[in-house]
Amino acid sequence: MYIKAASNISPQNTFGNQPYLSELAEYTGEQLTCIEPEYKTLIDPKLIRRMSRIIKMGVATGMDCLHQAGINAPDAIITGTAYGCLADTNTFLSKMVQQNEDALSPTPFIQSTHNTISAQIALLLQCHQYNNTFVNGGASFENALLDAMMLLYEGTAANVLVGGIDEITANSHAILKRMGLYRRFPVSNFELLNIPGEGTMAGEGAAFFMLSQEASGNDWAKIEGVSSFYKPRSIAEIQQHINTFLLTRHIDINEIDLVITGNNGDLKNDTVYGQLQQYDFANIPAINYKALCGEYPTSSAFAMWLAAHEIKNGVCSFVPQSNQIPLKKVLIYNHYQNIHHSLILLSAC
Amino acid sequence: MDKLMADLKEQIIEQLNLQDVKPEDIGDDQPLFGDGLGLDSIDALELIVLLQQKYKVKLSNAEDGPKIFRSVRTIAEFIESNKIPNA
Amino acid sequence: MDQPVFIAGLGVISAIGNTVAQNRLSLEQEKTGIAPIQYLDTEHRDEFPVGEVKLSNDELAGLSGFKRGISRTAMLSLIAAREALTDTGITNLAGLRTGFISANTVGGMDKTENFFRDFLSDNTKGRLRNVVNHECGAITNLVADQLGIRHYVGTISTACSSSANAIMYGARLIKNNMLDVVIAGGTDALTRFTLNGFNTLMILDKQPCQPFDANRRGLNLGEGAGYVVLVSKRIVSALKKELYCSLSGYHNTNDAYHQTASSPEGTGSLLAMEGALKKSGLQTADIGYINLHGTGTQNNDSSEGAAIGKLFAGYSPKMSSTKAFTGHTLGASGGIEAVFSALAVQRGLLYPNLRFEKQMEGFPFTPETRFSMQPEIKHVLSNSFGFGGNCSSLIFSKL
């Protein structure tokens, strides 16, 4: 299965005709915020007026991805989002409480449903095909990706649009901060992983991919597999999962040219990565990605965009000593709050 | 009546978040739905909320919407005829 | 690859009963669950009748085994999912690749609503434990942990078609040889958020709803949870209990007409039903009973009716909407109605469309008005359509 196109709105300059991560954006404080494009040229103004930020980000990346791939009738549209359309949910909920359940406006309620982005893309395309939305915390994008891969494997679809989207709102940030997810003292995202401490920085993003069963000769990368596992009880169990994942795909761990891990600068969170980097991943060049996009449940979609880009470029731009090695296989390993863990394996075409 | 219609135009643009539409772009008798301003059923529900919040006029049956919301003038007439005297 | 998927267990809790047996009895006795609001704390208490599960949060905590303070969505889910798993007679999941695919649309919103009362005036206020399980996925995790399922945990949210999609996804995980057993379905508790949301759309009926009736006025919201246990052929021989039926067909489409409204001609519904028939290899004439989406709104019923009228032209399929019993349970409806459909095909039960009086104009069929036994039913079609144009149909077949 091939990644025919990818589109990404993130806290970095990743959308549109940008040179690939040439100038990194620095954020100091508690969160990284998406750099958004001008949407008017991307989305029909008649539809845009009802769209909140996450819907615009999702629809713009989805449509851009289709445009890049030259496909306007995908066989399926699948999204993953842990929190869904938080701003709309927040608006309706707040007004409901403040106005004591009286004279409420319908638009935020309508737009608050988790399937809004995949539905809006279908509506824009007049696409009657398979349409699904996974809302499974830190494995939402992985569920969506697995669904997409199964459709391609089953032969019921040739081209599938799949994406992962989550947003930060002022209220969601305030709540998650009180739960202890974020740093208490301001830190730069460039230093976040160098100075481990308690908590991380919040992030957000929208990344879509066009997956195809057939090679086009111009694809970014191949997807070899995705796997998610839930609440592993020990590091040994995680190692077992990684081994089985590679074994069933007949790949030796030494064939992996690059590992992308989900370190987020939180001491407790990063323990797992530390242990794996000491043993299993010891001899493999490794990079992290959350300094670029922050921590959020569907951040693995950003990681997959990064991995696909690295493979497309052929060499890893972040590991100087590996400059000479052509990049063939890239493994992404991420977990979100130690609940959902996941593996995504990409290879060169 | 003219003042009410002018107010309504501004309020409609704000409530429905109409992009790139100015009050003077909306004619007093221009159809709001269909080929006119291109509003739809969700907008009709939004207009019901608008009337309730700003003018304390309640529309209990959504099916009356199309008739009342035909143009800015018909909305203004509906408000005038349903206003509570001296309220 | 296309191995059959069987249904080996059922579990349901709804306005008409806390177990499969109680639900079945209410359906047979034509006893509706629609009543004035008793448990939901809302300003609209006396305005809209609903299909509440007739238990308080404390009673649900007792029944589910969850500690008090957990979202009602999770408690309903655990009660029904556990009943479904127990029903299979499987006592030990070790060695079986087991998944829990649960759908919902509200997550822990019932608790978040309480949190927001304090939080809105001061964002340092409000008890965090009330918002910690706000996410839809968190509800699934809570229940998976209680059931002891870790192999595959998934959550789907596609509005009112959510749990039909969960069942479809579960079946495909089995067909792709990734899992042996999947508890699939969905849950949703009644919340102020959804009640007020549907009220802004002006589609709530102030009287008990009349689906597929010419004089229908809107829908009644309901709540509950419904799950089926899907099993692969490989493990059937190890089961000690008789299977209910097979899940022979399914299909997911999008109406792509409007964010909330269905197309007048029912494009998405028609494609979903046609796709499910094709998947099962059946003909229109093979369908013995259609469990309608039938919400009771003008728009849904005329759109679904148009699609059925076209697909079943020349036949006389039996059909009913069981939402007249349970109310529209949103993310749970596909799961609850899958349980009803599995029972219908296994036992030959034909449920009535309560309160039906007058045929819809232009619709050639009349829904069932009384409960009856119809042993000749071989295949049941269940429809679930939702906001965002999501349309899914499932087909259950006699073994």
From TrEMBL, chain A:
Keywords: Transferase
GO MF entry, a single one: 3-oxoacyl-[acyl-carrier-protein] synthase activity
GO biological process: fatty acid biosynthetic process
Family annotation (Pfam families): Ketoacyl-synt_2
SUPFAM superfamilies: Thiolase-like
Domain Beta-ketoacyl synthase-like N-terminal: start-end pairs: 43-169
Keyword set includes Ribonucleoprotein: no
InterPro entries on file: Beta-ketoacyl_synthase, Ketoacyl_synth_N, Thiolase-like
Full protein name: Beta-ketoacyl synthase, N-terminal domain
Automatic annotation (TrEMBL), chain B:
First and last residue of the signal peptide: none
Xref: Gene3D superfamilies: ACP-like
Highest rank taxon of the organism: Bacteria
Pfam family of the protein (one): PP-binding
Domain Carrier: 2-83
Annotated NCBIfam families: PRK09184.1
Name by which UniProt lists this protein: Acyl carrier protein
Originating species: Mucilaginibacter gossypiicola
UniProtKB/TrEMBL annotation, chain C:
Keyword Nuclease listed: no
Origin: domain of life: Bacteria
Sample GO molecular function, one term: 3-oxoacyl-[acyl-carrier-protein] synthase activity
Keyword terms of this UniProt record: Transferase
GO cellular component: cytosol
Name recorded for this polypeptide: 3-oxoacyl-[acyl-carrier-protein] synthase-1
Any Pfam family: Ketoacyl-synt_C
GO biological process entries: fatty acid biosynthetic process
Record-annotated Ketosynthase family 3 (KS3) domain positions: 2-398
Family statement: Belongs to the thiolase-like superfamily. Beta-ketoacyl-ACP synthases family.
